[in-house]
Amino acid sequence: MARYSRLPGSVALITLHNPPVNALSAAVRQGIVDAVQRALKDPKVTSVVICGQNGKFCGGADIREFAGPMSGPPLVPMIHAIEAVDKPVAAAIEGVALGGGLELALGCHYRIAHSKAVLGLPEVTLGLLPGAGGSQRLPRLIGLTAALDLITTGRHVSAAEALKLGILDQVTDNNAVDLAVEFVRSVAGQPLDSRRLSTLPCPCPPDVDSLLDKVMSKVRQRSRGALAPVACVQALRAAASLPYAQGMEKERELMATLFNSGQARALQYAFFSQRVVGKWSLPSGASWDNSTARTISKAAVIGLGTMGRGIVVALALTGISVVAVETQEKQLAEASRVVPAMLQREAGRRRLATPPGVISFSSNLQDVSEVELVIEAVFEDMSLKLQVFKHLASVCRPGTLLCSNTSGLDIDQLAAVTQSPGLVVGMHFFAPAHVMKLLEVVYGPRSSPEAVATAMQLGKRMGKVGVAVGNCPGFVGNRMLKPYLEQANFLLEEGATPQQVDEALEEFGFPMGVFRMSDLSGLDVGWRIRKEAGLTGPGVESTRTRQGRRYSPLPDQMCEAGRLGQKTGKGWYQYDGPGGRVARSDPWVDIFLETYRAEHGLVARSITPEEILERCLYALINEGFNILQDAVAAGPEDIDAIYVFGYGWPRHRGGPMFHAGQVGLGRILERLNHHHSHPDVPHLKPSTLLRRLVAAGSPPVQKWREFINKERVHSQL
Ligand SMILES: C/C=C(\C)C(=O)SCCNC(=O)CCNC(=O)[C@H](O)C(C)(C)COP(=O)(O)OP(=O)(O)OC[C@H]1O[C@@H](n2cnc3c(N)ncnc32)[C@H](O)[C@@H]1OP(=O)(O)O
Fold first, then answer.
1. Less Cβ around it within 10 Å: N or C end of the chain?
2. Ligand 1 centroid vs 16 CA: distance in angstroms?
């Protein structure tokens, strides 16, 4: 709703009231329409201020309403009516003015904001465009070039930047509503024509077409296959070339196409998934709202390789003092030189002041004795990690939280060598750890709710999307990656090339296909893990079956040939020397694959992009169902957030589990059965949960949690 009040001295104040972010629900829109009418009719009112309750102007349209039939007054005529008012109307912006919230403010004649406010048109991140006139008014206000940047990225800007861009008229460190009231009083009676943005021309650079073409190719490259960024550029082309009314017609047409698209549904689901994972719960019943986190002010990181350095920077950026420990002198010296520069760069990128002197470097593990939390980030080797944990248990004061940055090792085994296993959790960061958003917080059977809550809160402070996951080999992300990688290797055996596989995946929307990604991260990473698992190495017979399952020795053989990826200048592709970044196909790999197939009596066949996608993606999705069934992830949103934020799953496809729902669970089951029945693809046995969901009529992804809980109660899973 919206509250109407008359302030002394003829100013009408309209206050949006819809906690927590004053989203423009049907009731709020109706409230605004009624209040504006009242202000218009009241002869004693000479000016109007619109603000939001509780220090938040408006978070935009109510996204939850998008799923159902629209009711209440539409936004576009409501904003037109405000712009047409013949008394000055000012938006008093505190907190946020996002999406429809900013579009509402653009319909006002003046915009006054608090210095801490953030503004933006993030509709593109929800698969939409600023369809309440924003795509036509903003470029008229700040020019085409700046509007293209804000609208195609959806980025938020500070009040200071908004003032510089010309979005705001005034910014204050004091009360924005008071200033807006004072301001509208001062301009009452002045002409408003030049303040109505719809009547203004759109300032454009002389080479407008080439600018639009350049931005179009950039957005196509940046978010391959995404519809909304393309539509945003089209709407802005209309703003640059058409009168306002025709521009609005184009905005409406484009919006109609986007609004019911699968991509918009996927992106809105991704928005809510990110929030759902913050409300974590464990099978024990412990959850975000019944567990208390400790506030950490002093932490330590053990091991200053690539991961450790990134973690130190991520912690330091929050203002936590960090003891950074590395026992190898050479590595320590390099880290002491590199980490402060990384910190400064990242602080600059985030527009933060560099936290002064919060990191101390040491080669002595004793120096962690006074910290409240330790993150061990040594090499991914269980015996080494066990040694470090034993040492930590003797050095740290009682009650210190001990975390391991591991990508899949057993947290419970680490906890077992400490005196307080309840205080041990996994914190699986993704490289580069100071940049990547995802954090898997891994709880073992003995991890206390307090330890999980603290790790989750610490993740939030570091700006991460933390997802609480259970303890199993590979946790969620890497456990699902395993069958995906296996299928990719099997496809090479059967006749595909690395380029064919990568192209199919990149066409789907991944920034990098699986082989390009392997080259980037280093083929030796998986090799080491497979050696530890006894799947390869001296004494292991070179067959295509290992430990009773089909196995492809192709990646091992690449490593044995010294082709470790970008770092050696050669992997599944060739590069311009070690450390090269540009992948080119390599005839050596073609010959290698042909020889391999001949040795194993395999006849290459032609493989379609559809088969590549089915084999790789459905294998990954199937493991996702197994993970849900095993209660390693609390719900499909957790898996989807992990894949979107950590594994490059295209956000406009929601995540693997959402995608499964979009494709149709019946179809996924049918294709898995098809491939599973093929004698040489035995790994794709459909999960019991998938079968039960299909048998239950394939409920939508939002209902799976409830379904799983019921099945568990009735012991069906
Ligand atoms: C056409 C389309 C038009 C005209 C649009 O306007 S589309 C909407 C454009 N607006 C946005 O994209 C803003 C979305 N919201 C946010 O970015 C953030 O929520 C925030 C910056 C406004 C606040 O962030 P924060 O303080 O961290 O809080 P949360 O993100 O946790 O949100 C709190 C709860 O509010 C719910 N929420 C937020 N925005 C909306 C919205 N526009 N519609 C409906 N609900 C919204 C959010 O889901 C949280 O609720 P719970 O999920 O916890 O129940």
1. N
2. 15
